[in-house]
Structure prediction request, 477 residues.
Amino acid sequence: VTNSANIDPGLLERLKAAAGPSGWIDDTVAIDPFVTDQRGLFRGKTPLVLLPRSVDAVAKIVTICHDTTTPLVPQGGNTSLVGGSVPFEEGGEILLSLSKLNRIRSISAANNSMSVDAGCVLANIQVAAQEVDRLFPLSLAAEGSCQIGGNLSTNAGGTSVLRYGNARDLVLGLEIVLPTGEIWDGMRTLRKDNTGYALKHLFIGAEGTLGIITGAALRLFPRPTDITTAFVAVPSVAAAISLLSEIQAVTGEQTSAFELISRFALELVLEHIPETRDPVQTRAEWYVLVEVSAPDRAAGTRIIVEKTIARAIERGRAVDATIALSEGQAAAFWKIRETIPDAQTREGSSIKHDVAVPIDAFAELVERGTAAVLDEAPGARPCIFGHLGDGNAHFNITQPAEMEPTDFLDRWSDVNRRVHDIAHALGGSISAEHGLGRLKRDEVLRYKSDVEMELMRSVKRALDPQNIMNPGKVVSP
Ligand SMILES: Cc1cc2nc3c(=O)[nH]c(=O)nc-3n(C[C@H](O)[C@H](O)[C@H](O)COP(=O)(O)OP(=O)(O)OC[C@H]3O[C@@H](n4cnc5c(N)ncnc54)[C@H](O)[C@@H]3O)c2cc1C
Prediction:
């Protein structure tokens, strides 16, 4: 990465002109939120933030960067949890925000598809789908600010992967500005298209290192109207896994969410987040938030869920449950799940993991991971929650109550190493849904083979030989 002193002022003026009037920011104070990551772990530098309003303007900017070998960092909502969306500290990169490229281009209920600009905020896409009585199922706690281009670039997961898959599974086509500045129009809305390499998949999950997503053609689904949401107290993680099998056996794909919440995570929410209360009367060490949904209003999901939970209680796989009687009560259950990270922040510092294992290894991950963490950092408080239905644990560790927050954070690498080694040994991943970004770029080298890393590097070299697209993220040169 070049030093900002090396970015020629004339070049900055050309980039501003390409972005168009009011399409750029060069004031240090106004730039600050763009260069600071979501968790405050990284604070980078850039002389210029560009906010183009058209695909042609993006292409012009990238062409200039290509011709002058100037590195670029694409940014969506800047909610990345791995430092992928902010520049490095040297100040030699230009930041390209997609947030003004935010039109819904077209929507077809008959084709169950919609075409959007990359800078559309995820929640706005959900609303647009709802307006034509369809569902765009991608859903995550950051949906009010993250953008579809960022979601696709990180192959985001969220709470509906169990039923609908990751972001990758929701894409029909993409429009990309390549590192040369050329535009690849792959905005096809086809269900079937076997005409060579599936190029769109290279850009999904690439975290902005191969090109800039400027548009996406997305899949829509029938909108569920019969939705049953239950908060279930379970005696153990193993019991929660059995309950998942039982619910899926009777509802199949209608099981749309299955989220695990530890007692400690629930307690943090009850203590720190206003207007929350314990949904079930019986105290347990673990809880699951279950959602079963169907498009047919008379599908009877409530009766099925009631019967399945009653049977699980008889068999000792659940101890108590509350089934939401209203949308408001269901929203209160989801509020608990979605405010856990916020509650954790209010409790002090935490060391986080986003690991995935095969579901049948999940209980072992929790057991061995907890023992390892307590051995490494005595007094630390595991605050485990996550998308159990996808085998994905946010294996987060809250600092010991009496410790200085920064002293606990000093243990970050050692604690990470212990948890990552266990996840890997169980056939798992050290980044289930957040990506590698900057935070895990080097950590992943320990777990992927040289063959796999070299394949990744050769893809990067083929598409971006000058290494101007988000350099230093995902793969080292
Ligand atoms: C409260 C909270 C909850 C979250 N929950 C989840 C969750 O459940 N599941 C999950 O997967 N993630 C979750 N995240 C992480 C984050 O929200 C997702 O990774 C999201 O998809 C990022 O979108 P964004 O628009 O903010 O992207 P950014 O943070 O701006 O960027 C992410 C990466 O994509 C690149 N990028 C952004 N836009 C483009 C583009 N148009 N073209 C090319 N590259 C681009 C950036 O360079 C960066 O590397 C959560 C984050 C928060 C703060």
In short: The pocket of flavin-adenine dinucleotide is lined by residues 38, 73-81, 84-85, 98, 118, 140-142, 146-147, 149-151, 153-154, 156-158, 207-208, 212-213, 341, 433-434, 437, 470, 473 (CB under 6 Å).
